[in-house]
Specification:
The protein is mainly α and about 600 residues long. The protein has one domain: Hydantoin permease (Orthogonal Bundle). It is built from 22 helices and no strands. Helix 10 packs across helix 15. It is globular. The N terminus and C terminus are likely disordered.
């Protein structure tokens, strides 16, 4: 083990009764009996409570859709108005922390023992983290978001459809889906990799809080954290699948005009693709996710290259470096921009920020437990510096190129300096139609639209596949795959939850995207707080590890001095120093923990 401290990893090593109380232990024992009879291998409390709460939500939603929708709408409005600033500032603070830790003396530490090496090559690693991350998002918003900001600029005084509006639209789109989005994934991934693979804690969200909770991570507090993480992951995926389903439905309607993009069609799409995802789940991580990820990324890149070659190639190639420069130039202002003057300059409220950036951050953070565990799982053996640089920069660069190719092509087609065109009109009617209306402007539009539907469907299946595996890991506390029936249960549950949110929008006559925004903003708030605490826990653990290493190194100096004294030789430096540690280490120090790595303690 390369770390400076070790932790008991088996719940059996901890007196759970003393943590949870006798009655709770008895209840856990009964649930454990049920789990064994069902052939499950998981933490019974986390599994059954998470499943029960999800089923309860589905039942209540089916019985009282209108009141539930109204409650989520009111809660979302309050959060956006009063806590939107917290989301904006929080993600920027996380980004600054990640840059610091990667460049600091801690950057050489590995996510695993010091002799661990990566299990996946860089290309497969990138494909897996991308396809399991925001592939569906880029397909949905690659055209729709730049066009939306192009016609409705977020900044006061900017003329719609002007050159200035186009550059602002691209900068804001890259801000929403660039470094900041991947920051929300990187921080939990780093925390899980550090605590789980370097210090042998269970593969659960609660393990990240060991510096604060100690053995209580095995008790009610730890399990409450894990249950929140499981539910947040399920809801975050449901929103993504809801968006993907609406886009697939729009594509089918575009290709087959007689087929209406109705709620029934979208529920049917979810049913079919959930079945595909479950098939991949049974294959396991390497056979399922890796194969789908590689196919997926190749098809997506193929679409992007087709648009680059078929469109205004020189213009797009010139825009790639220019858009990167404008994005970096605007990044500081955007990272702290809260639209604070909107009550005096625009609509009298924080509507734009709530509909876009706050929604994105709340939505993305619900993916944090899922993506964090998934990234840690596929990144074992990499150093902190490699992990942060790879997860932050590689997907962000791909996102920039994707948005430049699709976004700038769409804005050029609609007419920069004009009054909008067919793509803007499609976005104003239904954002899910944006991509397919865009493809109509290129050769072989029907074929390309069909390929796009397949790509979105594969992203759908990959996300469901990955999330099912991770939710199963979160419940079991181990990276080992549990019984197939557990993963199938979570795969079916994700599809059912996504279908219920689609039905919620249909029953309440709400815009489908609006219904998804309301639910995810509310669910995202407690998860956002948890991720903030993850950062604080990482700071505490890293400082403790360094302090323990220094103390172990000093203990070695004292030992050398003692041996010299016994041999009657001159005493080495350090005589009279207090041999007791200034503060008790987080957990016992390993032998040899004070050795330097790469010249750093």
């Amino acid at each position: 083990m390369g770390g400076c401290w070790t932790i008991a990893t088996d719940v059996g090593k901890v007196d759970v009764t003393s943590i949870t109380g006798g009655e709770a232990a008895m209840a856990e024992g009964k649930l454990d009996v049920v789990a064994r009879r069902l052939g499950l291998r998981t933490d019974p409390i986390i599994f059954f409570v998470s499943a029960a709460l999800m089923v309860l939500f589905l039942v209540v939603l089916m019985i009282f859709p209108a009141p539930i929708g109204s409650a989520f709408g009111s809660a979302r409005e309050w959060i956006v108005t009063n806590l939107g600033w917290f989301f904006i500032l929080g993600v920027t603070v996380w980004l600054l922390f990640l840059v610091w830790v990667a460049l600091s003396r801690y950057g050489h530490l590995r996510l695993g023992p010091d002799d661990a090496r990566p299990e996946y090559g860089n290309l497969s690693w990138f494909a897996m983290l991308f396809a399991g991350g925001i592939g569906t998002v880029l397909m949905f918003w690659g055209v729709a978001e730049p066009i939306s900001h192009f016609g409705t600029p977020p900044f006061a005084g900017v003329e719609p459809y002007s050159a200035e509006a186009a550059e602002d639209a691209m900068s804001v789109s890259l801000y929403d889906l660039g470094l900041h989005t991947w920051t929300i994934f990187t921080l939990p991934g780093l925390a899980f990799g550090y605590f789980v693979y370097r210090h042998d804690l269970p593969l659960r969200v609660s393990s990240v809080f060991y510096p604060f909770l100690k053995e209580r991570i095995y008790g009610p507090i730890g399990r409450t954290i894990d249950i929140f993480a499981v539910l947040g992951t399920l809801f975050g995926l449901a929103v993504s699948l809801g968006l993907g389903t609406s886009q697939i439905g729009a594509g089918i309607n575009h290709l087959l005009p007689n087929v209406e993009n109705s709620t029934l069609l979208q529920v049917g799409i979810i049913t079919v693709l959930t079945a595909v995802a479950v098939t991949s789940i049974v294959a396991g991580l390497d056979k399922g996710v890796k194969r789908l990820s590689n196919i997926n990324i190749l098809m997506a890149v193929g679409l992007m290259i087709f648009i680059l070659i078929s469109g205004d190639t020189v213009f797009l190639l010139r825009q790639i470096p220019q858009s990167i420069g404008v994005y970096l130039q605007d990044l500081t202002g955007l990272a702290f921009w809260n639209d604070a003057m909107s009550p005096f300059t625009k609509d009298g409220g924080w509507g734009w920020q709530g509909d876009w950036t706050v929604f994105y951050w709340a939505w993305t953070v619900t993916w944090a437990p899922f993506m964090g565990v998934f990234l840690a799982r596929i990144s074992r053996g990499r150093t902190i510096r490699q992990f942060v640089a790879g997860v932050l920069l590689a997907p962000t660069l791909f996102t920039v190129v994707w948005f430049v190719v699709f976004g700038w092509s769409a804005m050029e087609i609609d007419g920069i300096g004009g009054s909008g065109g067919v793509i803007s009109e499609a976005v104003s009617q239904d954002v899910a139609l944006a991509m397919f209306t865009f493809f109509e402007q290129f050769p072989a539009a029907t074929l390309v639209s069909g390929i796009a539907v397949v790509v979105v469907a594969l992203f759908f299946a990959t996300s469901s596949d990955s999330a099912s595996l991770v939710v199963d890991m979160l419940c079991a506390g181990t990276p080992d795959a549990g019984p197939t029936r557990q993963r199938v249960f979570w795969g079916v549950s994700e599809g059912a939850l996504a279908a219920s949110l689609i039905i919620l929008g249909g029953v309440t006559d709400a815009d489908g995207l609006a219904a998804l925004q309301q639910v995810i903003t509310v669910i995202g708030l407690p998860i956002f707080v948890l991720v903030f605490l993850m950062m604080i826990s990482m700071i505490k653990a890293l400082s403790t590890e360094r302090r323990a290493a220094i103390e172990a190194q000093f203990a070695g100096v004292l030992a050398k001095r003692d041996r010299a004294e016994q041999r009657g030789r001159p005493k080495v430096a350090g005589r009279g120093r207090n041999r007791e540690t200034a503060e008790e280490p987080l957990v016992p120090v390993e032998e040899g923990a004070g050795e330097e790595t790469n010249g750093q303690p």
